[in-house]
Structure formats: C-alpha cells, structure tokens
Write a structure and sequence with these properties.
six-stranded parallel sheet, binds FE(4)-NI(1)-S(4) cluster, binds iron/sulfur cluster, alpha/beta
Length: 617
C-alpha cells in the first residue's frame, strides 16, 4: 500500500501537490499503480508470450505446469524474445528522433525550413570531415542513409576504441543500419524464427549499438549543429519556476525541433504584448522530461519537473498550455488537464492523446505553428481560476550545459587534467547515472541516494535524463554541491568551479557520455571496459532505457539497474546478462534496488578497475 506522500516522492514540491491531489480527488500514477496491485507475476518474470495466435502462452515459474508455449518456446526463448522486442522499441524511439533531426537538417540545408539555421558551423565542419564529404547536403544524405543502410558501417561507431570495434566485429554485433537492426528484431521474434536465446540477445546488443552509436548520436550531433553545442549556464529547477503572474507554458516530450521554436515564439515581443493585454505579466516557459533537458542545456529554460512530476504540474492550476511531442507523455495528462483550464496540445503526427488539442508541427512551417501555439496559451490565461492555483514555493539553482566540448574547455582544452585527477586518485572514477522515474520506487529517492553516495566517495557523476532533473531539484547541480563530495573530488570541482554532478543533457545525449568514455579510453590507450567507470539507471521504466542499458554494457561499461527487468523467468538469460556477458563484453548488468548498495557495487567495480590499471585505491 502506498499511502503516505513521503513514500511516493522525496521531492517536497511533489509531496505538496500529491496532498493537494488527494484532497481534490485527482488521480495520479501512484493511485493507478496501486490499482494495478498485484501486478502480473508472469509479466514481471517476462514469461508470457502473445507473439502468435496459438497463444497467449505462459510458463509456470514453479516448474509444475507448462514449461513451454504451444509452439514449444521455453522460458529462455520467451524472455529473450520479449527483451529483444523492448530493445527494438527503445532503439526505434531514439532513432526515429534522430531521423527527424536528420530530416530537418536536410530541409535546412535545402533552404526549406526557414525557421531554423546552423548554430555550430565548427561542429558541422567536423562532421563533414568525419564523413569524408565536402558539403552539408552530402552530409545530410549520408546521415539519413545510416537509417536505411544495409551493410554498414554506421559512421559514428568508428569513434569507439579499436579494441572494442574488433570485439564487436568478432561477435558479429557491429550494426549494419539503424532500421535494419530494428526490423530484424521484429523478424527474429516472430513465431518460429530465432529460437536461441544467445543468438537473440546478441542481436539485441547489435540493435542497441545502432541506437547509442547511431540514432541517438545522430540526434545529439545534429541538434548541436542546428541549435548550438551546449555551454555551461545557470538556471532553476522545480515547480517554483512557475510564475503566478505570467502565462505558463510547459514544454514536454523529447525533440528540440519543437521546443526551440516555442522558446523563440515566447520571446516574440508581439506575443508578450498579447499576454499583457490578457492581464498577464508576461510569458513563462518551463520544461518536463528530456524536452526540458534540451531547452535547459542550450537556452537555460528552467525545469518544472521530471517524469513523475508531469501530472502534478498540471494540478498546480497555473499551466495555460502543456505542449507535447513524443515519448514519456502520460496519456493520463488529458484527464488531469480536463480538471483545470490547462490546454494539452499535441504536435507530432505520430502522437495524439485523449483530451488534447492537436496543432500539428512541420519543419517547413515550424515558426508559425509555434506562434499559434503560444497565442493559444496566452488566450487561455483568462480562463485560469485563480482560486485554484497552488504553486509550491520550491525551486533550486542549477548548472547545466556540460557537452563533451564544454567539459574539455572547462579543463583548459584537453582531457589531460581529468586523466591526471583520475590517475592521482582525487577522482576515483566516473559514474554515469541516468534514466527515468518509476512509481515502484519512491520518486527521486533512488537517483539522489545513489548520486550522493557516489560523489561522497569521489566518483565524478555524469548525468542525463530524469536523473539529471532529480539532481537539479536536489541542489546537486550547483558548484556549491562540491561540499558534499569527498575531499579529492571537492578540490577538483572547486578549482574548476563546476558541480560534482555534470548535466550532459537528454537521454539521446547519453551519446555524449559514450563519446567521453571513448575519448578517455583512447587517451589512456585502453578499451572502454578497462576504465574506472560504471553506469546506473536507478529508477528506469521505459523501453528506451532497456536499449540504453544494452548499448552501455555493449560499449564495455558495468551497469546497475534499480528496478528489476522482466528477465528473471529465465535463469539462463538472467545469468547471461549479469555474469556471462562479462567474459564476452568485459561488462555486465547488476540489479540492485537499494540505491546505496548499488552505488557501493559501482565503487567496488571502479576500485577493481583502478587496480587492474595499476592506479591503486
Ligand atoms: Fe523518459 Fe527522456 Fe526516462 Fe525521463 S529518462 S522518463 S525515458 S524523459 Ni530518458
Ligand atoms: Fe505461444 Fe509460441 Fe505463439 Fe508465443 S509464439 S504465443 S509461445 S505458441
């Protein structure tokens, strides 16, 4: 039973709004989770299959009933197939985002997307060189071709250290084309195709690499070209960023193609005048989920909250419009918005929601649509019921904008000072902590407990996604948070004026962490799997996180998951992921719901890597 708000979230603003929702009888994800209890045991173990209509089938986990589906598929096969389908969906989500950015880039180059431009010419030049082409048009064509390519290689995979690439080739998991690998997941998991769990999982790794070093990396790199590569900046996080006197517009979802246009429209003097005419003091923008991360990293737009804050932010009654595109947008938002004056505005042809107004967004007419959306929000200000507005007075200053380029520049032009700090032990190692919220875990508790434990032990934390937002709200993204770090890390952070937790962006920007890991490994002349580094997703929930976990481990980074993945129904698959993989990939998964214990696992791993590199504890 989840009944105390403190067991639901450690975020005080969320606690306040959860109490308000309870009082007003407004349902949230936590209530719906309770109504799902007990959750299906077969689903939790990953041993149900409905891939054909002889089923649905399920395996008896106690070994008394069915040990195979109608076709003969065992628990090992069913679990591996289900895992592969999750990886396919996650890789598809990231990569389709990458495709949209690549397509927009092509339109920009062709002069067909007048609202956009090129902000980072230097990165554009670098990418053209990397691809061996001499015009932006050829680059756009080459990058778009990564999706439909049949025979590979995907160019950015060549950024990995040579040892890793050789390993991928030896295992047959060097991806050929982004779409090809995803399609092949669906083919292999169709009834009667791939029925060898090892073979299935190897293809899952190949598909995930096509996400991390393909689709996601394409999204990050081209977004930097179009919107600028992030540089360190300050902003604020949590619901207190909502302004009771202004028109509040929340941008939620994932793709900056939309949010950057909304930002521009909200700054338009005509729009601000319009807002004043409506009785507001101006227009205030804030973000949720990875849209927030993108908008924060490049424009300093404040964070209203992370994944599990989304319904609660609407419940403040102070939101004129919540503008969404794709991914991590709860269909429940329409219901919550319907209880207030809030307009839920969907914008992607791929994503419509019950209770939403659809204002479709296309690259060619992006600026106009964005202004139309902002105008709709402004006009909605008069419908706000002031007596129902409740904005928790809680917000925290945060520093963000740590692209790899920004980190290198903060270090004075090369990674050497970081390498020296790692060698000397002032920085013990690197922890990449990422991922979602999940109401199965007290909101933000997993993130914050883990990150605190890591920095206390001199582990520099790189963060993205909803972990970054949890850290922002908890004050861990301020340079002053160095006080909470161990002496070694504290000294390094204070010398550089940076926080002990570096916000590297959205979830597709985990590709920045990959690039940093590859650069570190290359500088040390070792493989990524030799680095004193570990990854974690303490509160993960989405299929994207499954793909992320798979490509991080495939890249050689030991990764701890905080919520249990649905694989325990197969001993063989669970064993392969949590130990067998180590012999093959030099890295594996661990599952540890206790975030402090999980941090200790990461630290132990980091220490053992240090010893292997001859660096001592
Ligand atoms: Fe979504 Fe990207 Fe997870 Fe947060 S971390 S809940 S995937 S917003 Ni990506
Ligand atoms: Fe059952 Fe096999 Fe069909 Fe799955 S594929 S539903 S296990 S018969």
């Amino acid at each position: 039973m989840i009944n105390d708000v403190r067991s639901k979230s450690i975020d005080l603003a969320c606690q306040e709004m959860l109490r308000a929702c309870e009082k007003a009888g407004l349902e949230t994800a936590w209530d719906r989770l309770e109504k799902q209890q007990p959750q299906c045991g077969f689903g939790e173990l990953g041993i149900c299959c409905r891939n054909c209509n002889m089923g649905p089938c399920r395996i008896d986990p106690f070994g008394e009933g069915a040990s195979a589906g109608v076709c003969g598929a065992t628990a090992d096969i069913i679990v591996a197939r289900n895992l592969l389908r999750s990886i396919a969906a996650g890789a598809a989500a990231h990569s389709d985002h990458g495709r949209d950015v690549a397509h927009a880039f092509q339109l920009i180059v062709e002069g067909k997307a007048p609202s956009y431009g090129i902000k980072d010419q230097e990165k554009l030049d670098r990418l053209m060189k990397e691809y061996g082409v001499d015009s932006p048009a050829l680059l756009a064509a080459a990058i778009l071709n990564e999706f439909g390519k049949q025979d590979g290689p995907i160019q950015f995979t060549r950024r990995v250290p040579p040892q890793r690439l050789d390993l991928w080739k030896k295992l047959g998991i060097d991806p050929r084309g982004v779409d090809r690998e995803i399609v092949e997941c669906l083919h292999r998991t169709h009834m009667g195709v791939d029925n060898d769990y090892v073979n299935l999982i190897l293809h899952g790794l190949r598909t995930s690499i096509a996400d991390g070093w393909g689709g996601s990396m394409i999204a990050t790199e081209l977004q930097d070209v179009i919107f600028g590569t992030p540089k360190p900046l300050f902003s604020e996080a949590n619901m207190g960023v909502l302004d009771p006197e202004k028109v509040n517009i929340i941008i939620h979802g994932h793709e900056p193609l939309l949010s950057e246009m909304i930002i521009a429209a909200a700054l338009d003097p005509d729009m601000i005048d319009l807002a004043r005419n409506e009785g507001a003091k101006g227009i205030n923008l804030a973000g949720i989920c990875c849209t927030a991360n993108e908008a924060l990293m490049r424009q300093g737009v404040p964070i209203a909250g992370n994944f599990l804050s989304q319904e609660l932010i609407v419940a403040t009654g102070a939101v004129e419009a919540m503008v969404v595109d794709v991914q991590c947008i709860m269909p429940a938002l329409g219901t919550m918005a319907g209880c207030f004056h809030t307009k839920l505005i969907s914008t992607s042809p791929k994503a419509k929601f019950p209770g939403a107004t659809h204002m479709e967004f296309h690259e060619g007419t992006a600026g106009e649509t964005a202004r139309e959306i902002v105008r709709t929000a402004v006009k909605n200000f008069r419908n706000r019921d002031r007596s129902r507005v409740q904005i928790p007075d809680i917000k925290t200053r945060c520093m963000a904008g740590f692209s790899v380029e920004a980190i290198v520049s903060a270090l004075g032009g090369s990674l050497n000072p970081l390498i020296d700090a790692i060698k000397s032990g002032s920085i013990r190692g690197i922890g990449a902590v990422v991922g979602c919220n999940n109401p199965k875990i007290t909101h933000d508790f997993g993130h914050i407990s883990m990150v605190r434990e890591l920095i206390k032990n001199d582990v520099l934390v790189l963060t993205t996604g909803c972990n970054a937002q949890a850290c922002a709200k908890a004050g861990l993204l301020q340079p002053e948070a160095a006080e909470k770090a161990g002496d070694g890390l504290k000294a390094v952070c204070q010398a550089l004026g940076v926080p002990p937790v570096l916000h590297m962006g959205s979830c597709v920007d985990i590709s920045r962490i990959l690039v940093a890991a590859a650069a570190l490994a290359n500088a040390l002349g070792v493989d990524i799997s030799d680095l004193p580094a570990a990854g974690a997703a303490p509160e993960w929930m989405s299929e994207k996180a499954v793909s992320i976990g798979a490509y991080v481990v495939s890249s050689g980074v030991f990764t701890v998951l905080g919520t249990v993945p649905p694989v325990l129904g197969s001993k063989a698959v669970a064993e392969l992921l949590t130990s067998g993989a180590k012999d093959v990939l030099g890295a594996c998964f661990a599952v540890e719901p206790d975030p402090v214990k999980a941090a200790i696992l990461m630290i132990e791993h980091i220490d053992s890597q240090r010893r292997k590199l001859g660096l001592g504890d």
